[in-house]
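Exam review. A common question shows you a sequence with its structure tokens and asks you to describe the fold in words. Practice with the pair below. Do the first one on your own.
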Amino acid sequence: MVTQNDHGLGLYNGDIGIVVRQDEGLRVVFELSDGTIKAFLPSRLPEHQTAYAMTVHKSQALNLVTPSWCCRQPIPQ
């Protein structure tokens, strides 16, 4: 998860990338705000943290079309 904006790369705090193995080696793939998919060398990323899951607080900068939350127990009405 990106933790520092990088306007030049088009990556912003809260963006989530997925590490993939390509013919050229490892890349981190992001869906940018305009809907395009772009792959970056891991060494090119701005400040970031490994994220296996994130809290709502950490994801506050994301613009999600359909967010969902998994709850262990039903939420009282």
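Now try the second one, then compare your answer with the model answer below.
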Amino acid sequence: MIRRYSRLGIWAAMAAFLLGSLSACDVGGGGTSLADGGIGGTGVIAAGSVTAKGSIFVNGVEYSVAGATFERDGEIEVLSEVEQSTRVGMVLEVKGNLDEGGLTGQASEIVFHDLVEGTIDSSTSESASIKVLTILAQQVVVEDGLTKFDDTLTFANIDSSNGFVEISGFRRADGQIEATYVEVKPAGMFEVVGTVKVVNSSTFTIGNLTVTGSSMPALQDGDTVKAEGTSYNSGSKTLNATSVNLEAAGLSIDAADYAEVEGFVSAVSGPITAGETFLVNGQTVQYSAATKFSGGAAEDLLNGVKIEAEGSLVGGIISAEKIELKENLKLEGPVSGVSGSSFTMTYPDDLSGTTTVEVRVDPAVTEEDTPFADLLSGDYVRVEGRILAGAVGSVLATRFREETPDDRMILQGPVENTNGTIINILGVNIDAVGPDLSREDVQITLTEFFAELQANSSTLVKARHRDNEWDQLDLED
């Protein structure tokens, strides 16, 4: 039996384990088994996409794989130290032990996870860097620079692939799949993993896909399943399933000293208050007044926002000690131009006069107040997003809304480089001499400001422009 953890979204990252001990567990469905111990030799379970090879690097931790089992599509092999089975971008679940210091570990079990396998029915280019594929009626977002491919595919030629492909990645709140790895597969079994809506005892849907079968487990709306079949009708978007199996929701354990989950917030209709539970890729999470936020604030926790949450796991709920918002770019100001699926915002620049930032709209963007089609030059907007992989100087907007016009402009993001007292955020040059400098609203000196930037390259700076000058620079976690 293949063990799957799809509702986790396969995004429980390793960083949490660097901060505390996580107990080892049997994740095969037979209950939770926890092992004691400090971080040196601590049993761990971690999940995420492979970022580099050597042994394998998952979320910054290098795992030795010699002797570990690798499970994929029901087949298990024992890996050597130099192995060829895993690829950068693949989503893997790793069990093993973390070494003293938390930077290396020994893997004992590795499981590959995919979300959909089948033929590409259609492909739409949303921009020069983003394509949306339709596979088994699932919308698969492929991003140049973010999505990795096997040796036969590239971002440029994925449209022309007319065979079977397998997608490894993560489910967004709206059901779209963010692809991190794509591989050509021999034609065979169609496969999809997702959340169901029950029609009757022999039929359910996963998004726009209808799944029928003569032998189904008892299902309820919201269950996660893996459905497989050899017959798929792209016209009616119907899969005749020969196998349907229930999948675990959330993390595969319900108690741990420390755990982390990364993914998209779902199952909420508005701002989330302290103590209220919400889902991150199927895992129940809650925060408190003591929770530390970075890349944003509690009011930014909304449906569809991508976050990392880490803390203790008790009774199947992560009590978050820290929440990091992954879409950590924020822009406020007037729109200077609209073209296709993107718009521009032009900021004052202390070296060149002005710099224009391109904002591309994610296919799954949440348009809170203003449909993108109605956006006009001069509209004052607030944008949240991330740096677009493969497109230097561009922002991928995951959320935007029109606001009442203001005389200020806001630019928040990581400092890309410095030149003397000049800092550069998204290509905009700002002189740190002149503005009020602060660290989370506490005033600091120019020396302290640059010392912080040098010590922590991931520190964000929130810059405010008002009355024809940059008048405030605030360091954010």
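Model answer, second protein: Helices lie at 15-19, 446-455. Residues 190-247 form one domain. Full marks require stating both points clearly.
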